[in-house]
Amino acid sequence: MPGNLIRRLLLLGALAIIGIISIQSYWLLKTWDLKDKEFDQTVNIMLRHVAERIANFHESELPKTQLIQRQSSNYYAVNVNSPINASVLEDFLYNEMDKHGLNTNFEYAVYDCFSKDLIYGNYCEMGEQTDKQIKSEELPTLDNLEYYFVVRFPGRESFLLSNMNMTLAFAAIAIVSVLFFMYSIWVIVKQKRLSELQRDFINNMTHEFKTPISSIKIAADVLSKDPKIQDDVRLNNYSKIIRDQNQRLNDQVEKVLNIARLEKDNLELKKETFDLTQELKNILENEKIKLKDGLLTYDLLNEEVSIIADKLHFTNVITNILDNAIKYSKEEPEVHLSMQLIGNKVRIAIKDKGMGIPKEQTKEVFDKFYRISTGDVHDVKGFGLGLFYVKNISQAHGWIPKLESELGKGTTFTLDILV
């Protein structure tokens, strides 16, 4: 993954996280504020009804103003113009609390005019009984009132939170999503770092291989041309093995270097116009020389078909497909290459009668380093880069590669090229 894309992803991710946290915080505070106002309004209505019932009970009139005063977030004072019976007050509070759906514990106290102090009434539990009671040691008095009672709701915060279950659930989902996103970003950055380390190591290693490979090739060519080596059958075979294996090693190194260029997105295609039919003939002739046993047939067009492409990469693509068809044959390879014009495209089809590919693996064969399992015996050599290279070169040219296979019956690879 390119470095610029990673940086953009990190920036967008950071902005998304900030946005989600900001919006979620805003809605949490907004919901809390709405619930608090709703709680205050319900408490005011409930206490007003209690005050009216007390006034009716004592046959007195309530003050016209400042009947209910909120001293703090959970502490209310109710002003009445008559003495208050604590037991009657508790009954009225229980009744009105239940009627208005305020299922939260409360405590109350009544102001005593003679002692000028609040006489603590009781800690009252609504709904489920709890072992832990949060009683106030001292409730503050009010100087501007004469007959009044106070009510405190120690579990107000818990009550409000219990009414925000849905909001809190969405907030929890958002937090989990943000954490998962942050973890994903961390994994991506870590994988990118490892991928760059791996790529740099492979690039350095393959470049280091080029020098000894070239030296071995020169030495092998010198040995093969020596008359003494040519006259000795055994030594001549050894020199031929050295040349062949050196060429094989060089091909593998070139594949790795080409893949590295593809991953860096700096692959330069040197496109030119050439005769596709003639180039396919040249490739097939070279493959026949390498093929010791087996049958390599073809059915090409008799006319000249010109395409615009990178000739070297095109040759490598067809060679890779043919090599795979030969390598994955069970016994003596039987490979057939055909060519036909379909509209403005030319279709190249390479069919073999090899071991085939399981259906579930047909999409994975184009992945880098992926190799078809051949059991416990790894008699098919390679790095799993051939078809990955084919896919990327095809995409760079705008070609359409397709693969059809049936296990035990063979594989057909088609490549559609614009002409």
The biggest sheet, with number of strands, parallel, antiparallel or mixed sense and barrel status, is: 5 strands, antiparallel
The end-to-end distance, rounded to whole angstroms, is 32 Å
In total, the number of domains comes to 3
Strand order of the largest sheet: 1-2-5-3-4
Determine the structural class based on helices, strands and strand pairing: alpha+beta
Stretches where pLDDT is under 50 for at least 5 consecutive residues are: none
Strand content: 15-25%
What does this structure look like?
- By secondary structure, the chain is an alpha+beta fold.
- It folds into three domains: 3-163, no CATH class; 193-263; 271-418, Heat Shock Protein 90 (2-Layer Sandwich).
- 52% of the residues lie in helices and 19% in strands.
- The chain has helices at 3-58, 86-99, 156-162, 165-225, 227-231, 233-263, 276-290, 311-327, 386-397; strands spanning 68-72, 75-79, 106-112, 117-124, 148-152, 271-275, 295-299, 306-310, 334-342, 345-352, 400-406, 410-418.
- The strands form three sheets. The chain has a five-stranded antiparallel β-sheet with strand order 1-2-5-3-4. The chain has a five-stranded mixed β-sheet with strand order 7-9-10-12-11, covered by helices on one side. Strands 6-8 form a two-stranded antiparallel sheet.
- The radius of gyration is 43 Å and the shape is rod-shaped.
- The model has no long low-confidence stretch (mean pLDDT 81).
Task: Please sum up the structure shown.
This protein is α+β, with helices and mostly antiparallel strands and 419 residues long. It contains 9 helices and 12 strands. It has helices at 3-58, 86-99, 156-162, 165-225, 227-231, 233-263, 276-290, 311-327, 386-397, and strands at residues 68-72, 75-79, 106-112, 117-124, 148-152, 271-275, 295-299, 306-310, 334-342, 345-352, 400-406, 410-418.
